[in-house]
Design a protein that fits this description.
89 residues; single chain
């Protein structure tokens, strides 16, 4: 948690993220997703964003959060294929 507080202005331990910090994190997330999108299988962008944001809030680096988001989507797709879940369009 300490690492994310240092990286994202406006974060204080135990307090909600302010608008500026959230905007910065969403902008970073959009940039990282832009690297993934051209070669990615069809997916809901919000699933990738959610995994990335959670990883960053838990103190992960941008690179680690990117890998976490990719892994989360791959895991979700594998589960959908096995369980006959909703196909992503």
């Amino acid at each position: 948690m300490q690492g994310i507080i240092a990286r994202l202005p406006g974060r204080e331990e135990g307090k909600a993220m302010d608008v500026a910090a959230l905007a910065e994190l969403l902008h970073e997330t959009e940039e990282q997703h832009g690297h993934y999108e051209p070669t990615a299988p069809k997916h809901h962008w919000w699933d990738w964003y959610a995994a990335y944001v959670v990883a960053r809030q838990q103190g992960g680096s941008p690179e680690g959060a990117y890998q976490d988001a990719v892994a989360a989507l791959e895991s979700s797709r594998a589960t959908d294929d096995v369980d006959g879940g909703e196909q992503i369009t």
